[in-house]
Amino acid sequence: DAGAYEAVFDAALAADERIEPRDWMPDEYRTSLIRQIAQHAHSEIIGIQPEANWITRAPSLRRKAILMAKVQDEAGHGLYLYSAVETLGARREDLLDKLHTGRQKYSSIFNYPTLTWADVGAIGWLVDGAAITNQVPLCRCSYGPYARAMVRICKEESFHQRQGYELLLALSRGTEAQRAMAQDAVDRWWWPSLMMFGPPDDESAHSAQSMAWKIKRHSNDELRQRFVDICVPQAESLGLTLPDPELRWNEERGHYDFGPIDWAEFREVLRGNGPCNAQRISQRRRAHEEGAWVREAAAAYAAKHGEARS
Ligand code: ACO
């Protein structure tokens, strides 16, 4: 009976064991995981666009090779995560359809434009830095396939974060114009990066339940604070400033205080009114349509291969 199954599920969570695809799980647990992992997968795929914008204009062969490797990693993360959602019974084509028709979200951060080469550095340092801060605890998420996917993804994100830092360091030690370009990129990406962690805890619809289910291990505000504390000394060693006059060390709390986040801007971006929302979705749909022949060819090959074996 359902009660007995539920008791097994609760006991597994209490013992910090992983829930696996064939285990019984509450419908709401499944639905919430599908929601979060699908959004995460979509973010990886949409996140390719702002960076791919600079591949043809990278300033050297070395920088181009690094950026191509990074973008390829992000595509891999997306595919990895779509596979993780499929273990919950979701179909990839339905998830993509929901992305393309605005029925599933992707991270707010990828709706901002990459105006200069320094933006590639700021994305690596801040956006991938925020992603790691959020994702390292997901390696201990209660759902096995998601937790395991996160292990590899975090390792690759860590490389991405370092390449961004190193890129900004080169610019900040370069000519005055290069330093100014790096500073301008950090000024534009700082606040949107803080928004990546989601709404404040008292407005976060899913946090309480996701924490009870051990999907999330820390609240949105806790992780945001952790990220700010990591970034302040890194900005100092980069020789760049963070665009927040209220940023200062609070001895009592043992954390940096920071200024208010513009949540009205966040809500607008989520409603589809960010600077690049329309462009991101139309480009994604076009890529999907233009890739139809690849999916057909792969399916035909798989069918033929299956026949040959049987
Ligand atoms: N961008 C877009 N939507 C967001 C964001 C954001 N930065 N933050 C929160 N939201 C959405 C939530 O998805 C939720 O919407 P929904 O009910 O339609 O799903 C709503 O705002 C309320 O937020 P919460 O209740 O706080 O949602 P949740 O508990 O899921 O926490 C979080 C949000 C922290 C993003 C969580 O889902 C998470 O950890 N996801 C995995 C990490 C991830 O997706 N990273 C993507 C960017 S990193 C990268 O791709 C490189």
TrEMBL record:
Molecular function in Gene Ontology: phenylacetyl-CoA 1,2-epoxidase activity
Gene Ontology BP annotations: phenylacetate catabolic process
Keyword match Oxidoreductase: yes
InterPro entries membership: Aromatic_CoA_ox/epox, Ferritin-like, Ferritin-like_SF, PaaA, PaaA_PaaC
Pfam families assigned: PaaA_PaaC
Keyword tags: Oxidoreductase
Top-level taxon: Bacteria
EC identifiers of the protein: 1.14.13.149
Root EC class: oxidoreductase
GO cellular component: cytosol
Name the record gives this protein: 1,2-phenylacetyl-CoA epoxidase subunit A
